[in-house]
Design goal:
Elements: H1 5-37, H2 41-60, H3 66-82
Length: 85
């Protein structure tokens, strides 16, 4: 267990960040899943817009590397473009 005041504070900060990052990761996975389960192209397009926006926000906050985000966005876009209208 931490003995220094600063180490105890670091533990509190780390826990807050862990919970926040975990919630963000879960939300992103949910949005990706919604894109994949959308029945038609129009519905998938709407959800895709939300997913891409959230992925970009994750990159700007430092939760995800920009290349990983680009790969996810590309994959989702390809999936939506393959769907029947």
């Amino acid at each position: 267990m931490a003995n220094h005041k600063s180490a105890k504070k670091r533990i509190r900060q780390s826990e807050k960040r862990r919970v926040r990052n975990q919630a963000a990761q879960t939300k992103m996975k949910t949005l990706v899943r919604k894109v994949h389960t959308a029945s038609d192209k129009a519905a998938a397009g709407v959800v895709l817009k939300d997913a891409v926006s959230y992925i970009d926000k994750s990159v700007s906050k430092g939760r995800m590397h920009k290349n990983t985000a680009a790969r996810k966005k590309s994959s989702l876009t390809k999936h939506v473009n393959k769907l029947e209208a």
